[in-house]
Structures are given as structure tokens and as C-alpha cells.
Amino acid sequence: MATIVEVAKRANVSIATVSNVIRGTRTVSPKLTERVRAAIRDLNYSPNEIARSLKVRQTRMLAMVLPDITNPFFPEIIRGAEDTAFERGYFLMTANTDEQIGRERRIVAALRSYRVDGVLLASASGTDISHLTGTIDAGVALVCLDRTVPGIKTDAVLLDNVRGARECVRHMIQKGHRRIAIITGSLDLQTGRERLRGYEEALREADIPVERGRILEGDFRYDSGYRLGKHILEQAVRPTAIFVCNGVMTLGVLKAFEELGIRCPHDMALATFDDLAVDSPFHPHLTTVVQPSYEMGARAAGILIDRIEGQLNKQPSIVRVAPTLIIRESTDPPSDIAAKGSKQRTKPKT
Amino acid sequence: MATIVEVAKRANVSIATVSNVIRGTRTVSPKLTERVRAAIRDLNYSPNEIARSLKVRQTRMLAMVLPDITNPFFPEIIRGAEDTAFERGYFLMTANTDEQIGRERRIVAALRSYRVDGVLLASASGTDISHLTGTIDAGVALVCLDRTVPGIKTDAVLLDNVRGARECVRHMIQKGHRRIAIITGSLDLQTGRERLRGYEEALREADIPVERGRILEGDFRYDSGYRLGKHILEQAVRPTAIFVCNGVMTLGVLKAFEELGIRCPHDMALATFDDLAVDSPFHPHLTTVVQPSYEMGARAAGILIDRIEGQLNKQPSIVRVAPTLIIRESTDPPSDIAAKGSKQRTKPKT
DNA sequence: ATGAAAGCGCTAACAA
DNA sequence: TTGTTAGCGCTTTCAT
Question: What are phi and psi of B158, to 5 degrees?
Fold first, then answer.
């Protein structure tokens, strides 16, 4: 691999001149510039970013640390972050922790020793944060994404979960639903709690009592959706609608629907957060709280770079990003209401 | 950020000693070792891997460059590669090209200047490979994953596509199907052609003529699955089974099924490659050609590291990995055969 | 407009 | 067992 010295030799200039034509630091005469260019081409030279980093004490490397790339929510976030990173002259790499705190620890340590300028983190760690404090103390910029890490004060880009849930449930109420169940995520997690709060607020607004029996605590996984979905469907007095706090659980709920022969929305309405796209060809399309993932990635990267470049004041900036409610057929009015309440009926019953 | 010099000072030893306790290069007396350890702790010191890399001329960084992390095929590959990379003392990062050759070019260039020791590549480029040749010439180890890049001679880990398709179609034949249609991927791609060949071989083995009208060329995307699925279902003489060459297209086919009220496998059997997991709660589970993704990632990383460490001879090693056929209900016998041919019937018709 | 040279934080060869 | 020092490939200050 050619070095700057070899290029300089071949072009018959000093290494400073080579550096200058590469980085445009000072003006170099056209003649020398051309000679340097030619030498670079001939030698298939690529500047050693490692050496440069050592000298200038920054790598222009950013890392995005994710708990689960399988979740379709993340790829768009990556794209958003990647695009703004590139625009601003940084390289973004991705690493996967598989929701394992051990892996996260390892990865963060590696990133630190590689001296990445900053990291975007959707942490797998609920509480154990020693690996993060050490890293932050050492001066690595950190912005939290999607989830904050309790006990750590950094910039963060989060969804307005309360609002997303509130608007979705509000919509269901407006469609005529009164008995609405919720399958929450883990209430140990901030996102889980916030989404539940949104649900409660929407009910209160409409003077509908919040009944404990309609609140089912899941854990954001398939199984809990299936189990709780089934539980709901077997109740004596069933709700007319279910609000599910993420996509994976919704898959479980749909499985329960299928097993019990429930048609949606005819027998039961459904709405969901989009953590997992349920963009299947099979069912009624689902009313969904959509997170602006691309934007979240882009903003997070923007904040991170601002922070790195010292364009932010001391205070952490916490951005709450607004979800969008996409209304589809899964929340059409419950059958009894549709029958009497609505002015026009789509299809006469046979 | 503390440096090795500061640690040495605080521990009252030479920097060589510090280096030696960190790397275990030579034996250091317990007393000094302890002093160094303490200093490291006190200073929250993390060795500068950048500086080390510059000196030892290797970064121990590996990169995996993927065209589409959305595809559920890839996360497992990443895990496999990550695990073996870690075991062997390397760090693996991931980068996404979004199937855009421009992005791939940019990313590969960046990786090269960061002097990653090697890259695992599932290339987005069909033909344009200048960015790769330059990089390989410069000494960056490259192993192709899932797809080869035509015109480039490197190590590669690929699926035995012919075998996967052959065994799957063979299974359908054995279940009693004779009229089997195939929706292929793009025949410009090696994977597309190989899977078609497997289909043809299976038919020939069974002395079933390969009819042009049953071979529908898709492009690995949802729309082509939908369109061609519909086309097949509207034929005067329908096949009894369809073999679809990847998962995304299968989603399209299922959509067509639903629109036309086709029940699977009752009205039409179906089998697929698993490029997209169709692990939905909705439908009959699909008979699937499963790729050993974890293993592919692991082997690719293994080869890459062997190559980097010079444990391989000159010749590229091309590994063909075997798929597994998972038989599920979607390929149950066609209704006419089931009625007369099978000894035991699952359910009497009503 | 160009060049010489110091030094970024580390490793390893050499010396003691 | 420990220490001294050259040098990895760059950038940048200081001269010219």
C-alpha cells in the first residue's frame, strides 16, 4: 500500500504538497497539482485515515448501536442517520447488540478504543450503565435513540409515545368504540408506560372509565400478544376494539383472531404501533401509529454531529418526534354501531 | 483522554511496561502490574486502537457490506460473522448499501481508507466493479457472500441454489404434483438462474416435461410475484403447485391467492425460498428452502480471517453451503390426488 | 507557493 | 524484568 511519501517522491514534491492537494488546505500550483494527481492515480493511493485520525485526533467515524436489526423500524433510522452523516462528512457504521447487555458492553468498549467520534445508541440496558458512563466521561459523544437510558444525561431523540397512543385511541373512540382494551408493552420500559398513558388520557377525555380489566400488560413479544389476545377474546363481555402497543404483539393477536375465527374489523377492531410492519397481503390493513423513523435517524445524527463539533450548549437536547396516525380499515366501527349509526353502509349484509 | 504516557507516569513505570501489561507481551512483575492496573483504572484509560493500528499495520476491523438489512436473511448472517470475528479477536461493523452501487462505492472507499483488514460483501453491483478491483489490489481482503461479483476472483460463500430448488421441487413431485409452475427471480442474476436449473433438473428426473408456459420470470420483487401469481391462477389449465424463488415474491403470490379466493394448499400448493420470512400467523405454513444464514456468516468470516492471516493458499476458496428443505402443509397433495391416492385422509370433505 | 520537521499514541527492537 | 527510542503515515507550524 502506497503512502504519502511514495506519492511525494513520484511527483517530485514534498509530502506537505501532497497533503495539500488532497485536502485542499492551501493552494497548490496547477502544475504540481497535476503531478500529484497523476502519482496518486498511478500508485492507486488511498490516504491512510488511521494516520490522519491519530494526528488530528478525530476519526470522523460514527457508530449506530442497535438492539435488533430484525425490527423493521431500524433500517429506516439507519438510512436517515447515514444520509446526514455522509452529508456532513462522517462515516456511519452499525453494530448489533441482539438485546444483550454483554454484547453492548463489548461493542461500546471497542468503539471507544477505535475512537469513534460519537455513537447513536438504542440501548439494550435497562439499568446497568457503567460501560456508558465511562465512555461518556472519556469524551465520546452519545445520543440516545428511541429509548433513553435511565440515569444518564445525554441528548436523545424519542418518539412522542403518549401522543401516538392518545391519538390512536381517540380515533377508535370517535369511530364509536367504547370498550377498548389495550395490550401494553413492558411497563418497566419508558415506552411501555408512555403508550399506556396515552391510552388512558384518550379515554378520560371522552369520559370513558379506565377499567383495570381492559389493561393487559404484555412484554412487546409475539407470545404475549397471542396469549393476551386470546384472553381478551374469551372474556364474557368482550371489548369491541384492541389497541396493541407494538407490531410483534399484533402478529400474536392476529394469530389468536384466526384460531378463534374472529374477523377484523367485523368482530373486533384493532390498531397498533408499527414496531413491526404488518404489511401483509392477508388481512384488513391495520390502523397504525407510524414513527417517522428516517427523520429520527437523521435528527439524531444531526444532534450528534452538532455536539461533536461543539455547536450545542451544555444542556442535553431531548427531541420528541411526532408519530402519524394512519387510519385503515381495521378500526372501522363495531358492527352494532355500524348497523344503526352510520349513514351509508358499505355492503348490505347477506 | 488519557494516554499511555500518563498511565506510565502515574504508575511510575516506562510506557513499555504499560504496553506489556495491557497486551501481555512480556511478563511484568506483580508489583508493577498492579500499579499499572490501578493507574489505568484511575485514569479511565482506554488504549488508543488507532495509534496501535498505525504501528502494527492492521486494524482488526472487519466490515460487512449488505445491500438490504431489511431482508430477514441478513441479520442471522451478521450474527454468524460477528461471533466468529469476536472469537478471533476482530471487530465487525456493518454498512448498508441499499442496493445502490453508488453507496457501495462510497462505503468501500471509506472502509479502505480506514484500513479495515477485510470486508464481507453481498454486492449490489452486477457488473461495475472498478471500486472493488482497486480495493483488492490495495490488499484489502474480500470475500463475497450470497452473491458473487462476476469478473472478480475472490473467496466466496454461496448457497447451493440448484440443490435447494431441486430438492424442493422433487418433494412437490413426490407429493403427487405434476403440473408445477415456477416463478423465478431475475435470470440476469446467478441465483435466479441456478434456482431455475434446480427446478428443471427435478422435473427431468421424474420424466415430467419442462413446459415453457410454466416458467414465469420474475425479478425477486413483490409486484412480480403478485402479477405472475395472478397470471398463473387465470390460466385455463392451472398447475397444481407453484414454486416461488424467493420470499418477497411469495407475499405477492399470496396476495393474488387471497384476491381470487384460492385456498392453499387445497386449491393450489406453494413452496418458496426464504429470502423473506413469511412466518405469519395467517396462512398455512409454507414449505420452504431454508438457507443456513448463521453458518454462512460464520464461514465467510472464518475464511476472511484465514485469508487475512495468510493461512490460505493463493486460490480463492468458494464454499457452497447446503440449504435445508422444511416441509410444511403448503405442499400437501393436490385435492384430486389426495382424494384417491392417499391411504389416510386427514379430514373428510363436507 | 513550497518544504522541513515535529509530533499524534502506540509497538517492538535494542540495551541494560 | 525493565527502560529507551525509532518510527508507523499523516497534518501543520514555521521557515523560506
Answer: -130, 160
CATH class (in words) of the domain with range A161-291+325-343: alpha beta
Chain A residues within an 8 Å CB radius of B282 = 254, 258, 280, 282-283
User: How far is residue A185's CA from residue A250's CA, in Å, rounded to a whole number?
Assistant: 11
- How many whole angstroms separate alpha carbon A167 and alpha carbon B64? 40
Q: What is the largest CA-CA distance in chain A?
A: 90
Task: Let me know: does A193 contact A225? Beta carbons within 8 Å.
Answer: no
Comparing A282 with A233, the larger pLDDT belongs to A233
Within 10 angstroms of residue B87's Cβ, the number of other Cβ atoms is 12
Over range A26-36, report the average pLDDT.
96
Instruction: Determine the distance in angstroms separating the CA of A29 from the nearest CA of chain B, rounded to an integer.
Output: 26
What is the tens place of the pLDDT at every residue in B94-107? 999 988 899 999 99
C6 closest protein residue (CA to C1'):
A55
Residue of B nearest to A41 (CA): B134
With vertex at residue A178, the alpha carbon angle to CA A256 and CA A244, rounded to the nearest 5 degrees, is 35
**B contacts of A255 (beta carbons < 8 Å):** 281
* Winning range, highest mean pLDDT, from A71-85, A109-123, A263-277: A109-123
- Angle, CA of A25, A29 and A31, to the nearest 5°: 130
Q: What pLDDT score does A274 carry?
A: 79
B225, closest residue in chain A (CA to CA): A281
pLDDT tens per residue, range B328-345: 889 988 666 554 444 333
For A139, the closest chain B residue by CA position comes to B1
How long is the CA B42 to C1' D3 vector, in angstroms?
Answer: 23
Looking at residue B342, its pLDDT comes to 41
Of the listed ranges A284-288, B192-196, B318-322, the one predicted with least confidence: A284-288
Q: How many CB atoms lie within 10 A of CB A134?
A: 15
Intervals of CATH 3.40.50.2300 along chain A: 57-159+294-322, 161-291+325-343
Contacting residues for B75 by C-beta, under 8 A, at least 6 apart: A69, A70, A96, B69, B293
Instruction: Give me the residue from A69, A93, A110 closest to B95, CB to CB.
Output: A93
pLDDT, one tens digit per residue, over B245-271 is 988 888 889 889 888 989 888 999 999
CB spacing of B283 vs A282 below 8 angstroms = yes
Mean residue pLDDT across chain A: 90
Nearest residue by alpha-carbon distance to C1' of C1:
A28
Per-residue pLDDT at B344:
38
B57-159+294-322 falls under which CATH superfamily? Response regulator (3.40.50.2300)
Nucleotides in D strand less than 7 A from protein CB: 1-5, 7-13
**Amino acid at position B308, single letter:** I
